[in-house]
Amino acid sequence: xxxxxxxxxxxxxxxxxxxxxxxxxLMYWDAIKVLTKLADQPASEWTPQQKSLFPPREPxxxxxxxxxxxxxDEINICQDVRNRLVHGGTVTDPELRSADYLARxxxxxxxxxxxxxxxxxxxxxxxxxxxxx
Length: 133
Description:
133 residues, mainly alpha
């Protein structure tokens, strides 16, 4: 994934492509939801598995709180798109593309991985077990 954003205004070529991004947006939101819940918990209550998700450069609670403060607007955009998808609202192609792009970068930033690694399946499978812990 390049640092230059893709053309987020490009319409989807097929309904299958749009459906795949819709599913990705929902998976990304589940991952972000886990991260925001962890940000609200003291790190002393986290499991070792949850703590292991984050790079060891700084205390995990501090990192998550800073991330949440820095990316609050982007997280809200992802949540808004997710809510409209789930509740039958209208989501334009640019909104959906933008939400997926933002979510990928928001998740990759907090977990300290390149955006190319933070695809929706990886994010979901990495963070879903943390939610159950």
